[in-house]
Amino acid sequence: MTDNDTTQTAGADDVALDPWGSSTIDDYRKLFEEFGIEAFEDVLDEVPTPHYLMRRAIIFGHRDYRRVADAMRNDDPFAALSGFMPTGDPHIGHKMVFDEIIWHQQQGGDAYALIADLEAHAARGLTWSEIDDHAEDYLLSLLALGFDPEDGELYRQSENRELQDLAFELGAEANFSEFEAIYGFGGETDVSHMQSVVTQMADILYPQLDEPKPTVIPVGPDQDPHVRLARDLAERTRFFKVTEAYASVAFDDDERPVVRAAYDARDAYADDPETPRCTEAADWLQSDDATAGFDDETVGSVVQKLENAGMEPLRPRVRFFDRQATDEAFDALIDAIDGEKRVFEGHVDAFDMSHETAEDLALGVEVDHGGYGFVPPSSIYHRFMTGLTGGKMSSSIPASHISLLDDPEEGYDKVKAATTGGRDTAEEQRELGGEADDCPVYELYAYLLAGDDDAVAEEVYSECVNGERLCGGCKEQAAELMEEFLEDHQEKREEAREVLDDLDIVLDSSRART
């Protein structure tokens, strides 16, 4: 969840995600197939006044962002949160995440930004003195870029007691074998490192402590393991699970689509399509081509369950499973269900209710009876910036990045010395065009220097690939714009110092100085 690097770890054959690594992700498209990340372009039209990072496909993927977009359009509560591990100076790569948090705040969301000092100490081995040295710099840049602390919250993990209490509760829902599978932890992994993961899960769910609401976590794709685990933990803490059902027998997530297909085809096999029988559906599922596209083993399991149900009607309903509700909450849920319902030990079936209405009902009952009611957090994923020297931009390689603290003249010089996607000679450039898609300097325009003006980014790209723009002039223009940006940003940082001094956030840790 914190802005970090990426490397190879357990999770997929060709693409692997590790929040504490250092390698790049070569093919973002593989993330859609391997991890279920969805293309952001599919939801872009649903976002009011999308940020330029969204419009330019720098934010390329999402997980369940429609919840947030819907809340944004309907003026419903929503939140955005991200964390920053203070391992070095904040740089222009971090600015993307700062901008994403600030933009969501400007769209009406509750905004949260945190210093992941517990993670930095446990996972990276930084001393508290080193962490303190960098924490202030991240906060000043965030404020300078437009974060409104009066309408948002800034905190350090180590100083937030409420966060740590939530982490303790979430720890009861996780286990070591899960951490081993997700993160590759082993017997040599220290307990503090594992504890820092649970703390990050609490960070991700922290915006919902006052009330459940859609929450987006803007991150690089290397942080997706944290997002997936947080979504799982959010579900595990819920009092009730709401699913679709078709009979008194229970079908799992893989089996329900098969049963749904059988119900939808009832006109083809049922003596009375108004009341198809489970045995009739079982017979149909065993007919030729009835279940094309479904796994044979899954179909076989569904057939067996339907046969066991016998002549019971196959009838759609919403099912509320009791996960860990109190007796009072379960009784309250039963009372709140209108229309026809059937109560079983451990679940309730409702026949006159939509799935959406059922979700809202379950959430309301849970919150009224002391539960968290967490909505599974959403996420958006941005591309990594290429380092100025090629490869990934990294805080640990000064020449690869431009720090937000760099002297403006140094920023100018770094851009002038950057690798480009140009040809070997000016003649070849004019004839063949440049390779803007592989150019760190073009990325500076797209990610930062063009600002909100898409026409500028498009002009630079078009002139480059058509051979009208040579690298020398392009870098000179970018270097001048970078110098201007750093001058302006650092002036605003100085103005932000007074704001930061007035905030209730600890800058000097009281922990051991080791």
UniProtKB/TrEMBL annotation:
Reactions accelerated catalytically: tRNA(Trp) + L-tryptophan + ATP = L-tryptophyl-tRNA(Trp) + AMP + diphosphate + H(+)
Renumbered ranges of motif 'HIGH' region: 86-94
GO CC annotation: cytoplasm
Leading EC class: ligase
UniProt cross-references to SUPFAM superfamilies, sorted A to Z: Nucleotidylyl transferase
Keywords: Aminoacyl-tRNA synthetase, ATP-binding, Coiled coil, Cytoplasm, Ligase, Nucleotide-binding, Protein biosynthesis
Keyword Nucleotide-binding appears in the UniProt entry: yes
HAMAP family: Trp_tRNA_synth_A (MF_00140_A)
Name recorded for this polypeptide: Tryptophan--tRNA ligase
UniProt family annotation: Belongs to the class-I aminoacyl-tRNA synthetase family.
Native source species: Halobacterium litoreum
Role this protein plays: Catalyzes the attachment of tryptophan to tRNA(Trp).
GO molecular function, one term: ATP binding
Source organism superkingdom: Archaea
Cell compartment(s), UniProt: Cytoplasm
Coiled coil: 475-506
